[in-house]
Design brief:
alpha+beta, Helix Hairpins, BirA Bifunctional Protein, domain 2, 2 domains, eight-stranded mixed beta sheet, 14 helices, elongated
């Protein structure tokens, strides 16, 4: 959530920036309740002091009256605090100034295109046709047992998936990232702390009062809930692998073919906790790692600065990497790199203690960033389609040869 002091001093800006993302929080009501809450806190503190003074003086009559007044004020404060926290949690993180203002993907800004698109002297197949022909993908049987938007990966694709995972972990652990396999079920409190409305609006899978994660980030970020880092501990970087689960609500009829948009998929995800002054540098660093890995697989891609209307509730800025998909003749999202500033750390109470002489003893909230190392399914699609041959075989990117043990999937 945002700092209430910032909201008080920049109410119009907060309203405007929130509207750019498609949200209309009631800032006027929030500030009204905030003022009421502040006054009640002062009143409660004053009554508690008076109660203590009357107790010292053994003035029972006055003490009894104060006790009644204090109880009433505490009840009022509790109600005002509940309303305050509800209202402030409806305010999204604000987009940064260099985020393009827009409503949808048509307003995103392409920053650069990298790599050459493949030129085929034959009619290329899409990944499902290739997968069916080589006995690599089975959506029909998966649909029979799990419903639509599920799939079995088989044979060489299984080896390819584990190769991509191992490759990502080798690169990122050499960069100092801590490898981690997180739980994929989280409680309601960390889910709320992340600030993704999707968990409550139908996008997430709910199991009683818990949720299946939409990405490893959703477990890794709240891992440090209610903790304080030392300054020497930052930056703290993790690379995590997990399955991810999304209902894909609102995507009816969209990308229904194959494994591009499914309810269950695997991801390797990066998460960083940094000081505020290191945020921009870290964001570019995560993006550079994504580009390094995509380039090493020789996949053509472009980098896109995502517009305000496409940003998630807790996100201040996001870059997407969109990889070329020949069957669709377009770039499609395979990676994202986001900064959520201190929005999530305020909700989850994740701080750090500055070193002596560098800001004093005052604790500060960390800044939280996340980025995709590989969304496995979409990376597999890109490899299959970009490196297919006329005979139906699929070449494996050279960087993965030592992990797969084969250089191509034969026809």
């Amino acid at each position: 959530m945002l700092d209430i002091k910032f909201i008080r001093e920049n109410a119009k800006l907060v309203e405007e920036k929130a509207k750019q993302k498609g949200y209309v929080p009631n800032i006027e009501k929030l500030l009204e309740v905030d003022e009421k809450r502040k006054n009640l806190i002062e009143a409660v503190d004053k009554l508690r002091q008076e109660r203590n003074q009357s107790a010292k003086k053994q003035d029972k009559e006055t003490g009894t009256k104060i006790k009644v007044d204090l109880k009433n004020k505490e009840v009022e404060l509790e109600k005002a605090s509940e309303e305050y926290y509800q209202l402030i949690r409806e305010v999204p993180n604000l987009p940064k100034d260099d985020v393009p203002v827009g409503r949808d993907e048509n307003d995103n800004k392409v920053l650069r295109e990298v790599g050459e698109k493949p030129k085929f002297d034959f009619e290329p197949k899409d990944h499902l046709e290739l997968g069916l022909g080589l006995d690599l993908i089975d959506t029909e049987r998966a649909s029979k047992i799990s419903g639509p938007r599920f799939a079995f990966l088989k044979n060489e694709l299984v080896t390819l998936e584990f190769a991509i995972i191992r490759y990502a972990f080798d690169i990122l652990t050499q960069e100092g990232f801590i490898p981690i396999i997180p739980p994929v079920i989280i409680n309601k409190k960390p889910a709320e702390g992340l600030g993704y409305p999707e968990y409550e609006t139908g996008e997430g899978y709910k199991i009683d009062d818990q949720y299946l994660v939409g990405t490893a980030e959703h477990s890794i970020v709240p891992m440090h809930m209610n903790e304080t880092f030392g300054e020497k501990d930052l930056p703290k970087r993790y690379v995590g692998f997990s399955p991810a689960f999304r209902r894909e609500a609102g995507s009816y009829g969209k990308d229904t073919r194959g494994i591009f948009r499914v309810h269950q998929f695997d991801k390797v995800e990066m998460v960083s906790f940094v000081k505020s002054e290191d945020e921009d540098k870290e964001h570019q660093y995560l993006l550079s790692l994504e580009e390094k890995m995509v380039q090493s697989l020789a996949l053509p891609y472009r980098v896109v600065n995502i517009c305000t209307g496409e940003l998630g509730f807790p996100t201040a800025q996001k870059y997407d990497i969109e990889t070329w998909i020949p069957s669709q003749q377009k770039y499609r999202e395979t990676h994202s790199a986001s900064t959520n500033t201190d929005f999530q750390s305020r909700r989850l109470n994740i701080k750090f203690f500055p070193a002596e002489g560098q800001g004093g003893p005052q604790k500060a909230y960390v800044y939280v960033l996340n980025a995709t190392a590989f969304a496995i399914g979409r990376t597999i699609i890109a490899i299959m389609e970009n490196f297919q041959a006329k005979d139906g075989s699929i070449q494996i990117p050279k960087a993965l040869h030592k992990y797969t043990g084969f250089t191509k999937i034969p026809s």
